């Protein structure tokens, strides 16, 4: 079974450090030759730029999860 973010302690990191880690993981996939479609890279770049331009526009995960579960 694959480790969870709790097993790895990732859930204890700040949002900024988790985002940095996402970038590092993403970059490691590319450096290993893992096929990542260009359209996915373009979309990630677009979303990262949007998040950097307006960090207050995002919502905490617990709010998003509650909305998706119909709990809000």
Would you summarize the structure shown here?
The protein is an all-alpha fold and 72 residues long. It has helices at residues 5-8, 15-31, 38-53, 61-68. The chain folds into two domains: 1-36; 37-72.
Structure explained in plain terms:
The chain is an all-alpha fold and 72 residues long. It folds into 2 domains: 1-36; 37-72. It contains 4 helices and no strands. It has helices at residues 5-8, 15-31, 38-53, 61-68. The model has no long low-confidence stretch (mean pLDDT 87).
Write the layout of secondary structure elements.
Layout: H1 5-8, H2 15-31, H3 38-53, H4 61-68
Q: Please describe the biggest sheet, giving its number of strands, its sense, and whether it closes into a barrel.
A: none
Radius of gyration: 15 Å
Assign the structural class, choosing from mainly alpha, mainly beta, alpha/beta, alpha+beta, or little secondary structure. mainly alpha
Shape: globular
Helical element count? 4
Overall pLDDT confidence:
87
What number of domains? 2
Strands, total number: 0
Helix percent reads 55-70%
The low-confidence runs, each spanning 5 or more residues with pLDDT under 50, are none
Which percent band covers the strand fraction? under 5%
> What is the CA–CA distance across the termini?
32 Å
């Amino acid at each position: 079974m694959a480790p969870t973010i709790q097993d790895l302690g990732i859930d204890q990191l700040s949002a900024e450090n988790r985002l940095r880690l996402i970038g590092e993981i993403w970059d490691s996939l590319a450096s290993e030759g893992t096929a990542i479609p260009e359209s996915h890279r373009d979309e990630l770049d677009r979303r990262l730029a949007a998040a950097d331009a307006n960090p207050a526009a995002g919502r905490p995960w617990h709010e998003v999860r509650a909305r998706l579960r119909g709990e809000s």
